[in-house]
């Protein structure tokens, strides 16, 4: 069966319902037959690009790291000796953030109340007992004890930090 295509043939537009010459018809992407003046191209968002993979990695990402412990400068004369004859020292360190049983090492400490520089700066450090957020105690080993007792000391530039420093 054939179809008429003569110069007088008309078609009805699916969009407007008007009659137009048969030779001026076009088919849209959705199958509708319309006049060339009514033609609308398919919108690009209706053809999304296909991603072959769903990337989850970030380019040039750097992993989160744990900050190494650092040496902190203590306030002037941060040490307070206990009673005469005892080997306990109270250390003042504002907002220290430390916990009981942490190990710290003092550096650049100055001799005071019978405690030698060697005893204060023991290479293996001291285990602390936290009193509050600003102070903790240590028990000095090596035979040194307070001579006068209840004396402040340690110098102007004493520091506290981890036993070993990371390079």
Helical residue percent band: under 10%
Stated plainly, the CATH topology of the largest domain is called Elongation Factor Tu (Ef-tu), domain 3
Radius of gyration, in angstroms, nearest whole number: 43 Å
In the sheet with the most strands, the strands line up as 5-12-8-9-10-7-6-11
Q: What value does the average pLDDT take?
A: 89
| Major sheet summary line | 8 strands, antiparallel
What is the 3D form?
Answer: rod-shaped
Structural class: mainly beta
Q: Total number of helical segments?
A: 1
What is the class of the largest domain in the CATH system?
Mainly Beta
Assembly annotation:
single chain
- How many distinct folded domains? 2
Helix and strand run: EEEEEEEEHEEEE
Give the N-to-C terminal Cα separation: 91 Å
The count of strands amounts to 12
Based on the coordinates given, report the CATH architecture of the largest domain: Beta Barrel
Beta strand %:
25-35%
Low-confidence stretches: none
Question: How would the blueprint of this fold be written?
Answer:
Layout: E1 10-12, E2 19-21, E3 25-27, E4 33-35, E5 72-73, E6 79-81, E7 88-92, E8 103-107, H1 117-120, E9 126-132, E10 135-139, E11 152-153, E12 159-161
Antiparallel strand pairs: 1-2, 3-4, 5-12, 6-7, 6-11, 7-10, 8-9, 8-12, 9-10
């Amino acid at each position: 069966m054939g179809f008429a295509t003569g110069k007088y043939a008309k078609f009805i537009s699916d969009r407007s319902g008007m009659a137009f010459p048969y030779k001026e018809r076009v088919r849209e992407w959705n199958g509708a037959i319309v006049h060339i003046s009514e033609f609308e191209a398919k919108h690009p968002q209706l053809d999304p690009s296909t991603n072959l993979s769903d990337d989850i990695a970030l380019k040039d990402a750097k992993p989160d790291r744990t900050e190494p412990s650092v040496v902190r400068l203590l306030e002037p004369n941060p040490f307070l000796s206990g009673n005469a004859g005892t080997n306990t020292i109270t250390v003042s360190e504002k907002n220290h953030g430390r916990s009981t049983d942490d190990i710290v090492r003092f550096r650049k400490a100055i001799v005071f109340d019978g405690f030698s520089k060697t005893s204060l700066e023991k290479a293996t450090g001291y285990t602390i007992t936290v009193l509050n957020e600003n102070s903790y105690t240590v028990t000095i080993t090596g035979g040194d004890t307070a001579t006068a007792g209840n004396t402040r000391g340690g110098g102007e530039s004493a520091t506290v930090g981890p036993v070993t420093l990371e390079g």
